[in-house]
Specification:
Blueprint (H helix, E strand, L loop, with lengths): L7 H17 L1 E2 L1 H8 L4 E5 L3 H6 E3 L3 E2 L7 H8 L5 E5 L21 H10 L5 E4 L12 E3 L5
Parallel strand pairs: 1-6, 2-4, 2-5, 5-6
Antiparallel strand pairs: 3-7
Amino acid sequence: MENSAVDYQGFSMLVEELAPVRSERLISLDTFLQFSQEKDTIILDARSADAYAAGHIDGAINLAFADFTQGKLDNLLGDKNRRILIYCNNNFTDNIEPVLKKRVELALNIPTFINLYGYGYENIYELNETISINDPRIAFTAADTSL
């Protein structure tokens, strides 16, 4: 008996549909930083609240991927046309807390992109570079000031 509230085939079709869209929305750090300064742009950190609290790109807002619901996304992001910039642990070369690498095929960027799109947020851009949390081009806010 299948659970009617879980649609693996629908998810698979959405993944296939989004492949070309996502490939066009992969951006460099310079573009990411430029976009982040523009009106109606949000940097979304979808890592856990603990990981976010331990360190994140300055200016990012947090909603853990596990907490995505239509209501929570709508309350946090508002206008569905707003530009959303995403990143995850695998965008960092450091491989230390709070940015421990995930298995590459399970990097949070991919499900975050798919889910945001599925919830109606289609103006999504994904950081496509790996950088250090100490890269001088970014401000990385960390609970541990030694980072």
